[in-house]
Every structure is written in structure tokens, then in C-alpha cells.
Automatic annotation (TrEMBL):
Belongs to the cytochrome P450 family. It comes from Antrihabitans stalactiti. The keyword Heme applies. GO terms for biological process: cholesterol catabolic process. This is Cytochrome P450. Pfam families: p450. InterPro entries: Cyt_P450 (IPR001128), Cyt_P450_B (IPR002397), Cyt_P450_sf (IPR036396). One of its GO terms (molecular function) is cholest-4-en-3-one 26-monooxygenase activity.
Length: 418
């Protein structure tokens, strides 16, 4: 298990997963295991105006909820644990993550065509060039902060390039991503809205320029996209940009750092990958399963219904705890063991398989595959060199710093920033 805390004595009747103390060491897998066995689903009572929610921890239940958007709505009350999420509910309804079909389908179609595995594969050389530069920048020193120097930078540079924002502005993207992640962790919709408004201000100049000179990038795609014969509004463009930036950054970063951490902690698993690039795609699936960096999304029942034989009343909130689904023993034998040779590990890192299933999953897997191919080839002996820190969050499994040392090597790239 990842957590070092002892949760065996916790009273599930009074357990409240909005209490962040359960998440200080990451997802509380011990609690999730007990919930799967003893309280599935689990009713999480809340005080004040918030009505509480059902927590689902079994793979099959999460899948059933996710695949039935007509019964389980994202738009009705948002996708967070309470009405206080990363942004106000009215704003979230304007982002694809918080929409229901048919509006969701129409908006998703704008980007679906860009994120196909086939088109993503054409990005492999660009991604490898970025990874080469990032490793070059640290390899002679024999030390780095893996999170800050590599895991943060890779998805940031990739998504900045795809969106079509100048690489010099990527610090700004990093800060907005962190604000949105922090807003989700602390249930501070005002902070999230503030970040979106800053993004809107920033985009005004870029969209004007791109309208005059369309380019082969996602901002131009958003500007020229039409839904039912109408262009997207400025607000829709801002929110779409915001979700692509946030979803493309934080998650990939957290899988990369959590995945490397698991490899360092389980050296026998790492040795299976050194000199064996063919094993890496499967290992990436196991890292996704192990880290499952997005902890949950919620839905709201549109009518009286049932999940796994359990009645759910109209208006009740249901929460899908993805790391719990990824470690459901019904789906993977010995799920609390990190095993890169596990064949086709079953996980819910990208969601439960419904219409909101991660749009960027092919891109994320490509980035992670190329990154670990290069890490296992060039710096296969990374070791921890200082305290590992994390964001305390019930939404994001996020390391903020992981200092490492390794045998110094030589640069391989041209030295230009990809
Ligand atoms: C390891 C990396 C990633 C993980 C673990 C991840 C995880 C997720 C999850 C759990 C969802 C919600 C699924 C649901 O509600 O059913 C989601 C949605 C989404 N992801 Fe990812 N994601 C990752 C990378 C990316 C990347 C690289 C992009 C590209 C820009 C991206 C774009 C999106 C978008 C746009 C949505 C909303 C889709 C919708 O509502 O239809 N994600 N992702």
C-alpha cells in the first residue's frame, strides 16, 4: 500500500472523505479496500447545507455509473464532492467535463478528431526531442528534482506546443494549472474562477492574432470550430482552453512522478524495464493503475435508480473513486502489488469508460512511454536524494518535489529547447 498511516480502526459509519487528513500520504488505499468490502456503496454524511454523497469503490459500479450519463448527470450539480469544487457549478456546466449529452457530444467532437491514437503517434518525434532536452539539461549534474525538472516540464511543453501558445508563456500555464489543482484540493471555486478569468484575459490577444493568421494548433481549431452552424463564444473558447491545459498537464505530470517513485521503490520491477523497451507500454498501464492520479469525479442521479443492486434516489450525488476501482481485486489479482509485468492491467485512471472518458488518453500514454523509454536507457539508476513532498488533496494524487541522484551521463541533443 502507498499510505503509511494505519486506517484499520476507522469507523466507516462516520468516515468523511472531505476531511483531507485522510489524504496526507496520498490515496487512502487501506480505507478504500475496507469500503469495497464492508460499505459498498458508502454514505458520506456532511454537515451544513451540503446533502452528503454515495461513495463507490468497486470497478463494476464505477463503470456502470460512468456509462449511463442519462441517469447520472455531470451538469446537474457538478462533478466534485460538494457544490464547492474547483469552479462554481454554473461555470463548470460550460466546460465539457461538466456537460451532459447532447451538448457534451457536440463540444467533444470538436477535439475528438485531433486526439486519435493515429494522429498522436505523429507527435512521437517531437515528444522524444522534448524528453531528450529535459534529460540533457540535468544529466551532467547527476541530480535533479524529478518533479520540477522533468515531470512538470514534459506535459507543459507538449500541451503548450499543441495549443499554440508561445513556449515562453508556459510558466504562466504552469501557474494556472496549479491554481486549478489547488482550487480542486481545497474546494475553493473562487480561486478556480480567478484562474479561468486570467486565462480569458490572456487569450484575448492570442485569439485576435490567430483569427488573422490561423495556424495548425488547438487555439485556431477552437476559433474556427462550429457547433450547429455557430462559432464558439469567447467564454467557450476560454473554458475549452482551460480544460485542455489543466487536464493535459497535471495528470500526466503526476503519473510520471508517481510512476518513477514506484520504480525506485521496487527496483526489481525497474530492472525488468532496463534494456527492455518492449516492456514499457505495459509498464505504463501498470503505472497508470498504480498512481491513478485523478481520485474521483461525481455525478447526480436524475431519477430513482440502482447501482450494483443498491437503490439511489433522484437528486443524490454519487462519487466514483477511481484509485479504488484500479485496485479492485475483482479486476486484478493481488492489486496492492506494483508489477510492471502484469498483463493488460485493468484500471480506471482515465475514468469509468463513459462518454467523458479521457480525451487525451492516447497522448498521455505516448508521453509516458517515450519518457520511460528514455529514462530507462539514459538514467536507469535514479535514487531518492531528499524528502518527497505532495499536495494534500482528495482530488489529485500529486507529488510536488522528488529530489533524485543518478550516475552522470552525456548530452545527446542539439541543445535547443524543443
Ligand atoms: C495520465 C494522464 C491523464 C489522466 C490520468 C487523465 C484522466 C482523466 C479523467 C479521469 C477524466 C474524466 C473521465 C470521466 O469523467 O469519465 C479525464 C477527462 C479529460 N481529459 Fe484526461 N487525463 C490524462 C491526460 C490528459 C491529456 C494529456 C489531455 C489532453 C489535453 C486530457 C484531456 C482531457 C479532457 C479534455 C477531458 C474531458 C473529457 C470529457 O469531458 O469529455 N487528459 N481525464
Amino acid at each position: 500500500m502507498t499510505s503509511t498511516k494505519n486506517f484499520t480502526d476507522i469507523d466507516l459509519d462516520t468516515l468523511d472523505l472531505t476531511d483531507l487528513s485522510y489524504f496526507e500520504d496520498g490515496p487512502p488505499h487501506e480505507i478504500f479496500a475496507r469500503m469495497r468490502e464492508e460499505a459498498s456503496p458508502h454514505w458520506n454524511a456532511l454537515t451544513g447545507d451540503e446533502p452528503g454523497f454515495w461513495s463507490f469503490t468497486k470497478f463494476a459500479d464505477i463503470q456502470a455509473i460512468s456509462k449511463d450519463p442519462a441517469t447520472f448527470s455531470s451538469a446537474r450539480a457538478g462533478v466534485f464532492l460538494t457544490t464547492r469544487g474547483a469552479t462554481p457549478v454554473e461555470v463548470l456546466r460550460e466546460v465539457i467535463l461538466g456537460m451532459d449529452p447532447p451538448r457534451h457530444t457536440a463540444q467533444r467532437n470538436i477535439m475528438q478528431v485531433v486526439f486519435t491514437p493515429k494522429l498522436m503517434r505523429q507527435k512521437e518525434n517531437d515528444i522524444r526531442a522534448i524528453v531528450t532536452t529535459l534529460i540533457d539539461d540535468v544529466i551532467e549534474k547527476g541530480e535533479c528534482d524529478f518533479v520540477k525538472d522533468i515531470a512538470v516540464e514534459l506535459p507543459l511543453r507538449v500541451i503548450a506546443g499543441m495549443l499554440g501558445v508561445p513556449q515562453d508563456d508556459r510558466r504562466q500555464l504552469f501557474e494556472w494549472t496549479n491554481k486549478l489543482s489547488h482550487a480542486a484540493a481545497t474546494s475553493d471555486p473562487e480561486e478556480g474562477l480567478g484562474a479561468l478569468m486570467e486565462i480569458g484575459g490572456y487569450l484575448t490577444g492570442i485569439t485576435a492574432e490567430r483569427k488573422a493568421n490561423p495556424a495548425d494548433d488547438l487555439i485556431s481549431r477552437l476559433i474556427t470550430a462550429e457547433v450547429d452552424g455557430e462559432s464558439l463564444s469567447e467564454q467557450e473558447i476560454t473554458f475549452f482552453f482551460g480544460i485542455l491545459m489543466f487536464a493535459g498537464n497535471d495528470t500526466t505530470r503526476n503519473t510520471a512522478s508517481g510512476g518513477l517513485r514506484a520504480l525506485i521503490e521496487n527496483d526489481a520491477e525497474r530492472q525488468k524495464l532496463v534494456g527492455n523497451p518492449a516492456a514499457i507500454p505495459n509498464a505504463v498501464e501498470e503505472m497508470l493503475r498504480w498512481v491513478t492520479p485523478v481520485l474521483y469525479f461525481s455525478r447526480t442521479a436524475q431519477c430513482d435508480t440502482e447501482v450494483g443492486g443498491h437503490p439511489i434516489r433522484e437528486g443524490e450525488r454519487v462519487v466514483m473513486w477511481y484509485p479504488a476501482g484500479s485496485r479492485d481485486p475483482q479486476m486484478n489479482a493481488d492489486p496492492q502489488r506494483f508489477d510492471v509485468s502484469r498483463q493488460k492491467p485493468m484500471h480506471q485512471a482515465f475514468g469509468g469508460g463513459g462518454p467523458h472518458f479521457c480525451l487525451g488518453n492516447a497522448l498521455a500514454k505516448l508521453e509516458l512511454r517515450v519518457l520511460f523509454e528514455e529514462l530507462m536507457r539514459r538514467v536507469p539508476d535514479m535514487q531518492f536524494a531528499g524528502p518527497i513532498t505532495r499536495l494534500t488533496s482528495n482530488f489529485s494524487n500529486e507529488l510536488t518535489s522528488m529530489p533524485v541522484t543518478f550516475t552522470p551521463g552525456t548530452r545527446e541533443g542539439t541543445g535547443s529547447v524543443a
